[in-house]
Amino acid sequence: MLQTGARAPDFRLPTLDGSKFALKDALARGPVLVGFVKSDCRTCQVAFPYLQRLWTTYADRPWSMVFVAQDRPEAIQRQVDAHGLTMPIAIEHGPYPVSESYDPDATPTYFWIEPDGTISKVALAFIKKDLNEFAALAAGQSNAETPDIAPDDDGQPPFKPG
């Protein structure tokens, strides 16, 4: 699995909405959160609402987000519909060259990639602390206080393994 300090491999994948996501183009706008998910991953299903909250809270900031679904489009579409997801989702359904190049240990796995292509944070599973740290990164240089994307008292555990 790629670690902090590694150079993120560039990739281009089709998205669920019919467009294309290119990491190089996204990095030109700012940092990028790349996540690897599967529709049948129970931990991913717990994380989806938090990731959606992250996306909608900071959509106006200079960063990007994409989740690489290791699924058939119809399988991940069921999760999109069930959770009301609007965040960008790329499809990688065999072969898996992007997944192989990042080599995530589990799903979900997240990589925060700086505009120069360097990975500055890696996180696995569902950990509220990590989600809140991604929120702070997405907030960028804002003077506004960063709200918790994953509050302690919301009924979900602070950690769920992937």
What does this structure look like?
The protein is an alpha/beta fold and 162 residues long. It has a single domain, classed as Glutaredoxin (3-Layer(aba) Sandwich). The chain has helices at residues 23-27, 42-57, 73-83, 97-102, 128-139, and strands at residues 12-14, 20-22, 32-37, 64-69, 89-91, 109-113, 119-124, 126-127, 159-160. The strands form 3 sheets. It has a 5-stranded mixed β-sheet. Helix 2 (42-57) links the parallel strand 3 (32-37) and strand 4 (64-69). The longest helix has 16 residues, at 42-57. The protein is globular, with a radius of gyration of 15 Å. It starts with 11 loop residues before the first strand and ends with a strand.
Tell me the layout of helices and strands.
Elements: E1 12-14, E2 20-22, H1 23-27, E3 32-37, H2 42-57, E4 64-69, H3 73-83, E5 89-91, H4 97-102, E6 109-113, E7 119-124, E8 126-127, H5 128-139, E9 159-160
